[in-house]
Amino acid sequence: MTLAPTLSGGLLIGGDRIAETSGGTHSHIYPATGQPNAVIPLAGAAEIDRAVASAWQAHREWMSLTVDRRRDLLIDLADAVHENLDELARLNVHDYAVPISFAGNAILLERFLRHFAGYVDKPQGTSTPVTGSFDINLIEREPYGVVGVITPWNGSLVVTGSCVAPALAAGNAVVLKPSEVAPFAALRFGELCVEAGLPAGLVNVVPAGAEGGDALVRHSGIRKIHFTGGESTARKVLQSAAVNLTPVVTELGGKSANIVFDDADLDAAAMLSAHQGPLMQSGQSCACASRVLVHESVYDAFLEKFLAVIEASTIGDPLDSLVVFGPVISQAAADRILNVIEQAVSDRSGELLVGGRRLGGELADGYYIQPTVFAGVDNASALAQTETFGPVVSVMKFSDEAEAVRIANDSRYGLNAFVQTNDLSRAHRVARQLEAGSVWVNTFSDISPQGPYGGCKQSGFGRTGGLEGLHEFLQTKNIRVGMR
Ligand code: NAD
C-alpha cells in the first residue's frame, strides 16, 4: 500500500506552523498497515492560549471587513478546497484509512462552505413593534467572537465543514481541535484558509488529545464550544465548560434503527442496509444503521439479499478506488470490537450469521474486522443497546408497525432512524413517531448543508446545517431605541 503525499503535523496558529509544543506528541499509525505514519506534536495549555489570543485578533479583523468581502473570501475558500479536493481526500484516507471511494467527505466540506457563504450578507435579525410605544425594537444576532470546535477522527472533514463554515459565516474566529488520530486533512484545510486570503488566525488548527481539548474547553476566551464525539467525553466537556459557564453543542453517537417494512423494495433496502450499516466507514459512523428491524413476512428474503451485498463488497487498500470497506481505527478498537462480538456470542444475544473475525493474509497487519451480522437479536442485549462503532449490525424481526416503532425507540440514543417502505402514509406516520434527530426514508444519511443534523436523548443537543446550524454560532441581542 502506498503511503501519503506529505503528512505534516505541527499546529497552525496565526498562519504559522508550530512544531515545538507543550502537549507532547502522538505517534500516528496508519490503520490499513499498522505502520507509523507521522509524529504529531500536540497542543498543550500554552498553545491553546496562544491560539485563542490569535483568534481574537483575527476575529476583530474579520468583523472589520464588509459583508461582501467576507462572503467573497468564504467563496474563495470553497474554491481553494475545490482545487485541492484530491489532496484533501487522500489526506483524509491517511487520517483514518477511510476508503477513498468515500471522498465525498472532502466534497461536503466544500458544499458547507458554499452554502454558508450565502448567509453572510443576508439579514440575521428582525425588528418588532413593542407594546404601548413607538420605540424601535431590534432583535439582532451577533457572533460569539472566538469559538472552539472539537472534532472526532471519523468523518472529520464533514464535521469540520459543518461547524467551521457556519461559525465563520456568523462572524466568529475558530480554534479547531481535530483529534490527534486524524489531524492531516484538518491542518491542510487550515492552510487553505490562509492561502485563500482569510485573516491569519481566523482558523487556528491545534491537534490535541484530552489534555489540550480540556484546556480549550476551560479557556475563558472561548465563548462557545461545538463538540462532536462520544458520550463519555461529552460528559467531561460539559463539566469543564461549567467552569466558565461556556455554552456547548454536543453531536454524539447513535444506535440507529433501520426499519424494513414488508412493502419495501427489498433489493434497495438490502443495498442501503449494508452500505449504511457495517460497510460505511467499517461501521465507524455516528449514522451507522446498526439495528436492522425487518418485518417477519420478508425477514428471510431480506436477509438473503442483505448478506449477498455484504459478501460482494470489496475489502482492501483504502487508496484503491474500488474498495468500499477498510480497517477500523486502531489495534485497541479492533480488540474492543472483537470482544463485543465474543461477548454477544457467549451471551447468546443473537445468531452470528457472517463475520466475527479479524482478516488475515495480506491484510493481517491492518486492523481489518470482517463485516459482521447477528440475526434474531434481543433488543435488550448489550449488543443492541451499546454503540459498537465497528462493522457489527444486529438484525431483528417485528410483526407490526407499533412493534417496530417501540423497538426503534427502545434505545438511549436518538440520532438517526431509517425507514424502508413504499407506503407514503406509513413513511410519514412512522417518521413522526421515531425519537431521532433525522429520519431518512428510502435513502442514505445523505448529510446536506441545508438540513439540520443532530440528535435527541443521549445523542446530544444542538444542530449543524441550515439556518439552525448557523444560529448555533450567533447570540441574540435586543436593542431598544426610545422614541421621544
Ligand atoms: P471521542 O469522544 O473520543 O473524541 C472526540 C474529540 O474529543 C477528539 O478530538 C478528542 O481528542 C477530544 N477529547 C477527548 N477528551 C477530551 C476532553 N476531556 N476534553 C475535550 N476534548 C476531548 O470520540 P472519537 O472516538 O473521536 O469519535 C467517535 C465518536 O464520535 C462516536 O461516538 C461517534 O458516534 C461520534 N460522532 C458523532 C457525530 C455526529 O455528528 N453526531 C459525527 C461523528 C462522530
Automatic annotation (TrEMBL):
<dbReference type="Pfam" id="PF00171">
    <property type="entry name" value="Aldedh"/>
</dbReference>
<dbReference type="InterPro" id="IPR016161">
    <property type="entry name" value="Ald_DH/histidinol_DH"/>
</dbReference>
<dbReference type="GO" id="GO:0016620">
    <property type="term" value="F:oxidoreductase activity, acting on the aldehyde or oxo group of donors, NAD or NADP as acceptor"/>
</dbReference>
<protein>
    <submittedName>
        <fullName>Acyl-CoA reductase-like NAD-dependent aldehyde dehydrogenase</fullName>
    </submittedName>
</protein>
<dbReference type="InterPro" id="IPR016160">
    <property type="entry name" value="Ald_DH_CS_CYS"/>
</dbReference>
<dbReference type="InterPro" id="IPR016162">
    <property type="entry name" value="Ald_DH_N"/>
</dbReference>
<feature type="domain" description="Aldehyde dehydrogenase">
    <location>
        <begin position="23"/>
        <end position="479"/>
    </location>
</feature>
<keyword id="KW-0560">Oxidoreductase</keyword>
<dbReference type="InterPro" id="IPR015590">
    <property type="entry name" value="Aldehyde_DH_dom"/>
</dbReference>
<dbReference type="InterPro" id="IPR016163">
    <property type="entry name" value="Ald_DH_C"/>
</dbReference>
<comment type="similarity">
    <text>Belongs to the aldehyde dehydrogenase family.</text>
</comment>
